[in-house]
Design a protein that fits this description.
The chain contains two helices and six strands, in the order βαββββαβ. The longest helix has 12 residues. InterPro entries: N-reg_PII, N-reg_PII-like_a/b, N-reg_PII/ATP_PRibTrfase_C, N-reg_PII_CS, N-reg_PII_urydylation_site. GO terms for molecular function: ATP binding; enzyme regulator activity.
């Protein structure tokens, strides 16, 4: 089992969600986050004063998947989230040692 963690632009969330549904991904956790990478933020003017916005709004999507669909999941997210511009985001894949469905006590892949 793996945890696929994607950090994407907020306006791409719906496209990513729909694309994942098409390949059979039924659940995910979505968190609003802020951060920056190569973008390094940007400058804005508010009430006549210029200030730097270092942390840009992003969305983090966490999906626990079986090993056999990790590559398809990552590919689907990358394709749906891509705009071709800086700040499109990143996808991370992390190992999961154990999963327990609280309601039924199922463990492992069956709990996904």
């Amino acid at each position: 089992m793996k945890l696929v963690k994607a950090i994407i632009k907020p306006f791409k969330l719906e496209e990513v969600k729909e694309a994942l549904a098409e390949i059979g991904i039924e659940g995910m956790t979505v968190t609003e986050v802020k951060g920056f990478g190569r973008q390094k933020g940007h400058t804005e003017i508010y009430r006549g004063s210029e200030y730097t916005v270092d942390f840009l709004p992003k969305v983090m999507v966490d999906i626990a998947v079986a090993d056999d669909i990790v590559a398809k999941t990552v590919e689907t997210i990358a394709k749906a989230a891509k705009t071709g511009k800086i700040g499109d985001g990143k996808v991370f894949v992390l190992p999961i040692d154990e999963v327990v469905r609280i309601r039924t006590d199922e463990k492992g892949d069956g709990a996904l």
